[in-house]
Design a protein that fits this description.
alpha/beta, 5 strands, 38% helix
């Protein structure tokens, strides 16, 4: 009885994206620092355990998460799945861009997905990014605009 979760705790399901996990007007940094920052946002929101951040860096070392169209979608390697507590995303927008292994990136979306949900999330974000004019809206938009555009994310 001492460790039993309350009904409220059991019912608490995290949203895919919270406004506090959107940062606009970010200044360029190294790719690794950006991945660690967006990963820490996922940790702080309760989506993943701390080891997932290193797994995101490891994924990037083995396979670039640059998707084209000034978008990068860093996420953890398969072995880090056990660190994912809930599906969620965190967003950083770099209006001036940053170097992503020789590619220009302006929008970075850190992703954690339970089971195969990460594929749905990747797909939904890519869909938004490919819409005519949407990347410009994301790059120039307010925190609220970015949040509204990405909060669906495709996972249910």
């Amino acid at each position: 009885m001492l460790f039993k979760k309350s009904k409220k705790e059991e019912e608490k399901k995290l949203e895919l994206l919270y406004p506090e996990n959107v940062r606009v007007g970010c200044k360029a940094d190294t790719k690794e620092n950006v991945i660690r920052t967006v990963g820490q946002m996922l940790v702080d929101a309760g989506y993943v355990g701390q080891p997932y951040v290193d797994a995101m860096v490891k994924r990037e070392e083995s396979f670039s998460t640059f998707m084209g169209n000034e978008l990068a979608l860093p996420h953890g390697v398969e072995e880090a799945k056990k660190e994912v507590k809930a599906s969620g995303i965190a967003v950083m927008v770099f209006p001036e861009g940053l170097d992503w292994s020789g590619e220009q990136v302006k929008v970075v979306v850190g992703i954690a997905g339970v089971g195969e949900e990460h594929l749905q999330i990747l797909s939904a974000i890519a869909e938004v990014a490919l819409e005519e004019g949407s990347m410009e809206k994301l790059v120039k938009g307010s925190k609220e605009t970015v949040y509204e555009m990405l909060k669906g994310g495709g996972a249910s």
